[in-house]
Each structure stands twice: as C-alpha cells, then as structure tokens.
Amino acid sequence: MRRINYDFILILITVVILFLISILCIGGMFYFKWAELQNVTPAIKMAFQEQMNTLLAPFLVALLLTLGLCIPKRLFSPRRLYAFIILLGLTGLGSALVWGWREALLWMLVISAALQAMVLILVVSGRRLKFLCEGYWNRLGSSLVHLGLVLFCLDFFLLSRWDMHLVIFWISAICIFIGMIVTFYAEGMMDKLRRRKELIG
After folding, report:
1. pLDDT digits over 86-133, tens only?
2. Rounded to an integer, what distance in angstroms lies between the CA atom of residue 40 and that of residue 19?
C-alpha cells in the first residue's frame, strides 16, 4: 500500500488556499473599481474594507494552519511537532479568549514568522533540515517563499498601520520573488557556472 505523502498534500492545500485568496482579492479590486468606491465617503470605504477582511479571514486562518504544520516540521521530530502544534493552538485559543481572535491570529503569525526566520538562518548556514525538495538552493528558495507567505498574512493585520504595512508588504513580496527565482533557476545557473569553470580550467 502506497504511503501517504503529507508534504505533497500540504503543498496542494496551500496552493488551493492561495488561489482562493487571489481570486477574492482580485474580485474585491474589480468591485471597488466597478462600484466607484474611490469616490465615496471614508466611512463607506472602511465598511467595504471590513467586509473584505471578514470574507478573507477564514482563508487566512486556513493558510495559517497549513503553515503552522509546514514550518515547524523542518525543526521538530514528529512527536515534538504534534506537541508544538497543540501548544500553539492552546496559546492561540488562550489569546483569543483574553484579547480576541484578531490578536490571537496576529500572535500566532508572529510566532510562525520567527520560526520561519530561524529556518531560513539555519538553511543559509548549511544545516540540513527536513525538506521535501533536495539541494541547497531549493531549500533556500522554499524557506524564502514560506517566510514571504507568513509575512504576507501578517501584512493583512497591519493595513491600518501604513508605516509598517508597506514595509512588511515589500519584504514579503521580495522574499517570495527571490524565493521563486532561487527555487527554479539558481541550481541550474550554478551547474552551468560549474561546468563553464571546469571547461576553462
């Protein structure tokens, strides 16, 4: 009997969630333009933004859960991973009961971002962590993309803070862009450079 590849399933779920988030965001932008909401009062704009945030929240929670499974497994053994997920969930639930769901999700995103930054540092330093992909550049690219995704989710909670919002947004965009380039092209480019160096030598 074939063993279930949980990494592949997580990737598929993440792709589907990101696709749905993209559809929702693009639809919201088109509706904003079609309804000419740029010409209405600030109160109506804020109401539209709150409505979009409400629609987006379940997808962000789902993405956070998938990232919450994907990121720590680089660092922990399966037994410790389950313990960490339970601890993270209880921490989030406790934060929600004390401060509300928004603050709880924000706190969990901050923890995820810190963990992914740790993963990125370990990958850059050459530590061999648990990845579905092989090769240094693939691991580096994957780490950058994951960090970008976490920061992208975190950015939604900072829309009212324009100073932080723009900084986080561009950092997330740069991480995802560089991560994609590194994942798909860096290893091939390094192989070409290596072969060229061998020919010259």
Report:
1. 777 777 777 777 887 777 777 878 888 888 888 888 888 877 766 666
2. 30
Compute φ and ψ for 53, nearest 5 degrees: -65, -40
Domain membership of residue 1 (yes or no) is no
Amino acid at 156: F
Predicted TM-score (pTM) of this structure: 0.68
In 35-129, alpha helices (H): 42-70, 78-99, 101-124
Number of domains present in the structure of the chain? 1
Phi-psi map region of 170: left, alpha, beta (phi>0 left; psi -120 to 50 alpha)? alpha
* Angle (CA) 98 164 173, round 5°: 110
CA atoms lying within 13 Å on the CB side of residue 137: 13
pLDDT per residue over 137-166, tens digit each? 777 888 888 888 888 888 877 766 767 878
Domain holding 70, by residue range, is 6-200
Name the residue with tokens 């240094």: 136
Give CA–CA dist 90/84, Å, rounded. 10
* Contact call for residues 95 and 104 (beta carbons, < 8 A): yes
